[in-house]
Amino acid sequence: LALADDPDPEVRMQWAASLGEWDDPAAGRALAGLLERAGDPYVTGAALSSALPRLDEILTQLTDAGSRAAVYPKLISMAAATLESGPLSKLARQVARLPDPAAAAITFLDGIRARTLPPAEFESVFVSLRPLTAGARAIVRDESADPARRLEAISLLGRVPGEQKDDTTVLLSLLRADVPLSIRSAALDTLLRMPAPGTDVSARLLELRGSAGPALRARILDALLSRTGWTRKLLEQLQARPGEIATIDPARRETLRTHPDKSVSTLAASVFDAAEASRQDRAQLIESYREAAARQGDADKGETVFQKACASCHQLDGIGLAIGPDLATLGDRSVPALLAGILDPNRAVLDQYVQYVVTTTEGRSLTGIITSETASSFILKQLDGTTVELLRKEIASLVSTGRSMMPEGLEAVVTRDHIADLIAFLNAPRAPRKTFPAGKPVTIRPDATGALSLLATRCEIFGHDILLEDRFHNLGHWHGPDDRAVWTVQLDHPAEFEVHLDYACDDRSAGNRFRFEGGPAGIRGTVSGTGNWSDYRQ
């Protein structure tokens, strides 16, 4: 046993491997001590390889919370994947008796998910965990419980066969507007993890789309797109409620049109083609403005048009109210894109600019867009630019109109005589381009293979914080929507491209949204963590 403190890690590693052959409880105690203080991954690996025969002693001897957090996942996952049903049942009982059983139970249940034991043997394993999962459901229902405990309890649900119906009922009850956002989000994650959540889940998600704020709305849409049956139900709802089609962005429309299931892609084409046909009056209006919009405009006159027609919702150069999108950071400033945005604002509506009607428990009715959300409240920005903070417990109903705050009919104010001036004002040069020694903006053309290489050193850089960093020649410090990069591309003919992004993001900064404009649909997504700022992925 003195070898446990040998200064040579190779000696400690061999000693740990040999303990697996020693049939004595002292071996388990020695392995537990080694796992608690082993800093060398090879020594830890050798100790884990010897652990299964002495699992009882190790689990009872690991008393340090930090050691349990580091060792339990590996130890329990390995045991759950390899033990026979008898020892497996014993391990389940041990897990249920641990001081902090929830995390260990999740690891255990994940470890046996792929096992093919007979049903009777599975039941003998699960029986000792059922009080734990019943307790988790009670914690989830308890609105006064600590939020961290509720989140941990939610993550335990949906893992034990025979309980998924009860778990589904509990989780669906959390998808209400008055429930904290973190709880609703965790409940949605758990429902989607379950192998067969049931049709009542898709029905609730379809219902929830109309009352979910921007933070959850896109995730619900992606959830509905994750299962073919749910996707078909979504399209059927859109077919019955064409006013909601505007909330499906162009990228997801294309995903639906090209769905591998023929019945889904056919239905999607029918739904979206019908929506386009119903907006022919807007399309004809845009076409009638095209020639006038292409003329040389006067930016000074355009400022007057902006003040009259746009300033009630948009702010630019200090003019107007910042309710709608920030026009200073607008990506696609082409004439077709600006005409569509001005004359057909409800053709496609970003989640963060969807209009909501809120009714409070006191009977007040408010209309606006949700600009931010917390666990217990959200901020509603109204048409006059004022904001009001509403507690979720004060909300009687929250309903999306499926439409933009920007009204149709601006052609009554922005006539054909005014459109070129307004576009000139919108496209007038503003913030100066930032310069860096390694940055040399150029017009980018396809290479011999037809590919476009949009390197960070070849773009124009705008914004307060964004930098061209020296070490990797990457764009860094994207801290706000005014931080942007612009590449100038020249093509001899129309072409389709696959877009690959090389990026790095520390896990602690993951979760922000990005937007890539360069075509009729554009690309939007969420930045995932890669580990750290030096670990690049594609």
Protein model, in words:
The chain is globular, with a radius of gyration of 29 Å. A hairpin with a 3-residue loop joins strand 4 and strand 5 (377-382). It is α+β, with helices and mostly antiparallel strands and 538 residues long. Among the domains are: 2-194, Leucine-rich Repeat Variant; 280-345 and 409-426, no CATH class. It has a 5-stranded antiparallel β-sheet, with no helix packed on it. The model has no long low-confidence stretch (mean pLDDT 82). Helix 10 packs parallel to helix 12 (181-193). Helices cover 44% and strands 12% of the residues.
Strand and helix map with partners:
Blueprint: H1 9-19, H2 25-37, H3 41-49, H4 55-61, H5 65-82, H6 85-96, H7 101-111, H8 119-126, H9 130-141, H10 147-156, H11 164-172, H12 181-193, H13 199-208, H14 214-224, H15 228-240, H16 250-257, H17 262-278, H18 280-293, H19 299-309, E1 315-316, E2 319-320, H20 335-343, E3 354-360, E4 365-373, E5 377-382, E6 387-391, E7 395-404, H21 416-426, E8 443-444, E9 460-462, E10 467-468, E11 475-476, E12 484-486, E13 488-489, E14 513-516, E15 523-526
Parallel strand pairs: 8-13
Antiparallel strand pairs: 1-2, 3-4, 3-7, 4-5, 5-6, 9-12, 10-11, 14-15
Brief write-up:
The protein is α+β, with helices and mostly antiparallel strands and 538 residues long. The protein is built from 21 helices and 15 strands. The protein has a five-stranded antiparallel β-sheet, with no helix packed on it. A two-stranded antiparallel sheet has the order 1-2. A two-stranded parallel ribbon has the order 8-13.
